[in-house]
Write a structure and sequence with these properties.
single chain; DHBP synthase; seven-stranded mixed β-sheet; globular
Length: 292
């Protein structure tokens, strides 16, 4: 369970909670899909329910407690590990509800993603975004990466999206790939560190995606640590570094990958790898080849 730290709890407005069943229903219908070559070829990340079985919380938890691939099927001779998706039990659903409530009120939370623990604030909340910079002791001119719930949100935060960018998104989202794109003018300048580009990705983790869905807007997804120190890979590591400065920590165990995302600049048609992380350079180069 996550440790709750509320330095300003008395000033927070109480918000109604959703019933766990309603949140589970939303998750089963909207977030567990991986984009294929076209919308018609989307592949469900969870096995289909048997006839006559409803998508209640018990069934959903049974379906999530299994090995699933992080990326689309690999070609013969290639190999990659599988993720174990944490089951969304009642305690975790309660943590999600608390996290969504805090984000909507302008707070800052730490939460697990498919790579490392992230530090989240709603990108439409200036105070929350500024707190993320302060908590991390991050220079104000360094943009904050942004998490989306799905590829359909990309136009909310970016513009001038190239064919290469869309090709990479189709191949690796949801997953450990951050794409640097031209910022949509509607996104606050502070999120982009005062620049005109923004890093975005769709995480392959039910907690991170549920937070974005529940908040209704993209959230920041910078690693939950002090700048210059190792990224937090467990709730305990996050608590040791910044626990007294965040409003809440969602504890869903260690992230499956444990490695930060690969960052690729796709503001021009020719992509530039800025950081090689969970996805290798060779995989990026292969994915950039024109589709046949």
């Amino acid at each position: 369970m996550g440790a709750l730290v509320y330095p300003n709890a008395g000033n927070r407005r109480a918000m109604p909670r959703r019933e766990p069943g309603n949140l589970i229903s939303q998750l089963t219908t909207v977030i567990y899909y991986r984009q294929g070559k076209s919308a018609e070829n989307r592949t469900p990340l969870l096995p289909p329910l048997k006839k006559g079985i409803k998508g209640d919380s018990t069934t959903f938890m049974e379906r999530t407690n299994q090995e699933i691939p992080l990326y689309p099927p690999l070609k013969k001779g290639e190999s990659r590990g599988a993720l174990r998706v944490p089951p969304l039990d009642a305690a975790l659903v309660e943590q999600l509800q608390e996290g969504v409530s805090i984000l909507k009120q302008g707070g800052v939370i730490a939460f697990p993603t498919d790579t490392v623990y992230g530090l989240g604030a709603a990108i439409n909340c200036p105070d929350g975004v500024q707190r993320v910079f302060a908590i991390k002791q991050r220079p104000a001119d360094q943009a904050l990466p942004v998490l989306l719930a799905g590829p359909e949100q990309i136009d909310e935060v970016a513009t001038g999206i190239t064919d290469t960018a869309r090709r990479l998104a189709r191949r690796f989202w949801p997953g450990a790939l951050t794409l640097v794109l031209k910022k949509n003018p509607g996104v606050a300048a502070a999120v982009a560190g005062g620049g005109d580009t923004i890093g975005v990705r769709v995480p392959c983790h039910p907690v991170a995606v549920a937070l974005v869905r529940g908040t209704g807007v993209p959230i920041t997804g910078t690693s939950a640590n002090l700048s210059g120190l190792s990224a937090g890979k467990t709730a305990a590591e996050v608590r040791d570094q910044i626990g007294s400065y965040v409003d809440y920590i969602i504890d869903a165990g260690p992230p499956p990958a444990g490695t930060e995302s690969t960052i690729v600049d796709v503001t021009a048609e020719e992509p530039v790898i800025l950081r090689e992380g969970a996805i290798s350079r060779s995989e990026i180069e292969k994915a950039c080849l024109p589709e046949r």
